[in-house]
Amino acid sequence: MAGDWAVELHGVRKRYGRGRTAVHALRGIDLTLHHGSYTAVMGPSGSGKSTFLQCAAGLDRPTAGAVRLGGTEITGMKENKLTALRRTRVGFVFQAFNLLPSLTVEQNVVLPMRLAGHRPDRRRAAEVLAQVGLADKARRRPGQLSGGQQQRVAIARALVTRPDVVFADEPTGALDTTTATEILTLLRQAVDTQGATVVMVTHDPAAAAWADRVLFLTDGEIIDHLDRDAIDGPRLAPGHPDHLRPDRLAAGRERGAPPYRAHADRIAARMTSLAGPRARTEAAA
Ligand SMILES: Nc1ncnc2c1ncn2[C@@H]1O[C@H](COP(=O)(O)OP(=O)(O)OP(=O)(O)O)[C@@H](O)[C@H]1O
Ligand SMILES: [Mg+2]
């Protein structure tokens, strides 16, 4: 059933411009994402990651194909209806935080509710601010917070309406490693404990390693993927003898110690192999 999926893309294409100068940013994306899944999107610069995110989130319209969010077809939806859907059923986190500096932290968090014409739910705001560890910062302004704290406000704002899906474009791109880890932990927790669905673009294998699945995008096509389960193995019932297999014990230690270093190494290796031919061509040019 359509409603079982948080995100569906069918034959999505995006072309910028026309004729000889046209750029084919997406060349036919087919993708279905479960509710409660965490997906990372990686690929070389210009491969179409941001375009993919914008089309999937209803911020931009594909040239061809169909997009559904939480079972609702958004292709061809009138702009005002699409805007309303975005405000209630989609959350966004950007590299540059995108908070309004003149509003307090709490006012920033309830902004999606206000924009959707709903009464700001201050209890819900307090709840999500507590989730991101900023319960005591509600009355501050973004300028009085560190970068990592500002990004946590952005995550609280993205989660406040309990959206079908949270889209994040390089959410850790402007942060140091320690702060990035805090943000990735929060996104992971949102998936694991709140049942949120997250789609995150990143160029950092260590960040991508937090996701359940990594999609590799090259020249507007998804050409490969890597699952975290492929390393950890499927979840076993408690007491199953396979729990004691050495590889599973190692995987268990790995799982208990984010950022999943062995998995990040695999992702990095896959990225290098994808970038290889292109990098060689460029070197030869
Ligand atoms: N508004 C636009 N008009 C014309 N071309 C565009 C536009 N936006 C993106 N493109 C082109 O589409 C392709 C994909 O761009 P996109 O921004 O999706 O890449 P990306 O994978 O997010 O790259 P990066 O890692 O550098 O952010 C690129 O060739 C880009 O130049
Ligand atoms: Mg981009």
- Assigned CATH superfamily of the largest domain: P-loop containing nucleotide triphosphate hydrolases
* CATH topological fold name of the largest domain: Rossmann fold
- CATH class term of the largest domain: Alpha Beta
Main pleated sheet: 6 strands, mixed
Helix tally equals 10
Number of domains: 2
- How much of the sequence lies in strands comes to 15-25%
CA(first)-CA(last) distance: 49 Å
Uncertain spans: 279-285
Taking all Cα atoms into account, the compactness measure Rg is 20 Å
Structural class: alpha/beta
CATH architecture of the largest domain: 3-Layer(aba) Sandwich
Mean pLDDT across all amino acids: 87
Overall form: globular
- For the biggest β-sheet, the strand order reads 6-7-8-3-9-10
Overall helicity: 25-40%
Write out the distinct hetero groups bound to the structure. adenosine-5'-triphosphate, magnesium ion
Q: Summarize the helix and strand pattern as letters.
A: EEEHEEHEHHHEHEHEEHHH
Element layout with pairings:
Blueprint: E1 5-16, E2 23-34, E3 38-42, H1 49-56, E4 64-69, E5 72-73, H2 79-89, E6 90-94, H3 105-115, H4 122-131, H5 147-159, E7 165-169, H6 177-194, E8 198-201, H7 205-208, E9 213-218, E10 221-227, H8 229-232, H9 246-255, H10 261-284
Parallel strand pairs: 3-8, 3-9, 6-7, 7-8
Antiparallel strand pairs: 1-2, 1-4, 4-5, 9-10
The chain binds adenosine-5'-triphosphate and magnesium ion (MG).
Magnesium ion is lined by residues 49-50.
